[in-house]
Write a structure and sequence with these properties.
280 residues; alpha/beta; Rossmann fold; 2 domains; 10-stranded mixed beta sheet; 10 strands; 22% strand; elongated
Amino acid sequence: MNTILVPTDYSNTAFNALYYACELALKNDACLILLHVYDIPMVDANMAMELMSSMEKEIEQQTHKDLEQLMTKINDSAGGDRFNNLNVSYEARHGFALEQIIEVAEEKGAGMIVMGTTGASGIKEYLMGSNTQKVLEHSTIPLLAVPDNARFEGIERIVYASDLRESDKPALTQLARFARQFNAVIDVLHVFQHTDEEVRNYNNELTEWIREHIPGEQITFDSVYGKDKEEAVDRYIDDQNADILAMLTRKRNFFQRMFSSDLTKKMAYHTEIPLLAFHE
């Protein structure tokens, strides 16, 4: 994670995500790229190309100034000089947010994208129908979604919610590298709804694989029963006082499958910690 990309729309939610990203960059000695995607105002179709180009240049210059002021505001909120030594660069792009975020992330070789989310009554609302969810669906780069009520207080425990698949292995390898920077414990959690000998066998196999390929890491395994997987994960991260919930995404239907529940039921999971999503 040498480079962290942080898109912002200057909202309080995005500000909180940026603060979180600054803490991550500080701990990982990573470069920070602050991105704002803007729209070009509607103009007369007969306007000269030189004038349109000049207008775009002015907007881009102003955006760079706004982003620099935003970093000053972040520093002020942290006491004045906490993030002074961060390697920060600024990107101003125009177009559709999703396309520009992915393009900049790939162009700059970002190892992680950090975005804010307003949260909601559950993980499905938390992710679905937002720019964060769209980036999650279309980008292959790990995404950290930071709720607007989350505050960075260090990272000591990460819960990785697993449905015990072979594709967990590369995700856990990435997660272990991330956790190592904070000396954090990783709890691999599987929520089961019935006894399954195959699941138990794979759990044992995954344990042995981790011991062989990710030795020395603080990784534990736990399985809990739950008719509602979402509620079970909620209870577990609360009981463990987790700082981050991590998962492997398999596009949108993964979330619908893993956290399926009655749509008429009020969802009990009020997300208060960041979600770190890896991609299959």
